[in-house]
Specification:
Layout: E1 11-16, E2 19-24, H1 35-50, E3 56-61, E4 66-68, H2 81-100, E5 106-110, E6 113-115, H3 117-124, E7 127-131, E8 135-137, H4 151-159, H5 161-170, E9 173-175, H6 176-181, E10 187-189, H7 194-206, H8 210-223, H9 230-241, H10 245-255
Parallel strand pairs: 2-3, 3-5, 4-6, 5-7, 6-8, 7-10
Antiparallel strand pairs: 1-2, 8-9
Helix pairs in contact: 1-2, 2-9, 3-4, 4-5
Bound molecules: coenzyme A.
The site of coenzyme A has 18 residues, from strand 6.
């Protein structure tokens, strides 16, 4: 694997046979998306757009437990309504929307927990494969929050209204096989085979005409376009949660490793 131009603190990247592998590398924090990871993912996606040697990309997480266990909850404490909305908007602009609209294929190899922002990151990719131990969910309600990186829109598109409502209201996690049966992931493999399978699929795609492939991406995105206001409303309501006592209780309880008590305030 060769290195590309940019070096990162929170990511490990490498380029081999046109495939750019981006590994989020905070395994002791379940690869949670803090400010640095978001900034660096933005730069790594820029590399995908701008480096002609990169033909396709795969996103994964370091270690054997987590793809990404969500946004970094420890960074929420200092944020008010505007700060919460700004966090969601910046992530969308720098990373999530840019991945979705990337003219080169970007897939997720989900190697463990894909929760909250992690599930949203995987869903912003063009498609997903997962290891048998992968778990998916949008557990923000446990924190007095909602998804803020497009989850309310993209999960609903991918698995339909009823199941999306249930997962986001209960905060339940689902396993890889259920995720496959819902259409959230395309293939489920033993963890040891996950990256081999990702590279096999990307090699196959790289033999096809790149311009035609980029048209496919744009048009499938057209067919599944979000409600024009959906993402904007999500950012607004995500910010609004930061004004609630329940959000303060939920995030504090997580960091104190106890169960939250919500009051509807
Ligand atoms: N933000 C910040 N830190 C996180 C995190 C997140 N989203 N997810 C995990 N971590 C940290 C934990 O605080 C812990 O840190 P510590 O070792 O300094 O105490 C470390 O990662 C390991 O996590 P832990 O909870 O001890 O591991 P576990 O195996 O018991 O549980 C999860 C794993 C993924 C089920 C659990 O970490 C979890 O529920 N994470 C939050 C998921 C979430 O709500 N995501 C949405 C965020 S908006």
């Amino acid at each position: 694997m060769t290195k590309t131009e940019t070096t990162y603190k929170t990511l490990v990247t490498g380029l081999e046979n046109g495939i750019f592998t981006i590994t989020i590398n905070r395994p002791d924090k379940m690869n949670a998306l803090n400010k640095d990871v978001i900034e660096e993912l933005g730069l790594a996606i820029d590399e995908v757009y701008n480096n002609e040697a990169i033909k396709t990309a795969v996103l994964t997480g370091a270690g054997e437990k987590a793809f990404v266990a969500g946004a970094d909850i420890s960074e929420f404490g200092s944020l008010d309504k505007d700060g919460g909305a700004a966090l969601a908007r910046r992530g969308g602009d720098l990373v999530f929307n840019k991945i979705e609209n990337c003219p080169k294929p970007v897939i997720a190899a989900v190697n463990g927990f894909a929760l909250g922002g992690g599930c949203e990151l995987a869903m912003s990719c063009h498609f997903r494969i997962a290891s048998e131990n992968a778990k998916f969910g949008q557990p923000e309600v446990n924190l007095g929050l909602i998804p803020g990186y497009g989850g309310t829109q993209r999960l609903t598109q991918l698995i339909g209204k009823g199941k999306s409502m249930e997962l986001m209201m209960t905060g339940d996690m689902i396993g890889a096989e259920e995720a496959k049966s819902l259409g959230l992931v395309n293939h489920v493999l033993p963890l040891a085979d996950l990256m081999t399978k990702a590279k096999e699929i990307l090699q196959k795609i790289q033999l096809k005409a790149p311009i035609a492939v980029s048209h496919v991406i744009a048009l499938v995105n057209d067919a599944t376009i979000c409600h024009p206001d959906g993402l904007a409303h999500e950012i607004e309501r995500f910010g609004a949660c930061f004004e609630s006592e329940d959000m303060k209780e939920g995030t504090t309880a997580f960091l104190e490793k106890r169960k939250p008590v919500f009051k509807g305030k």
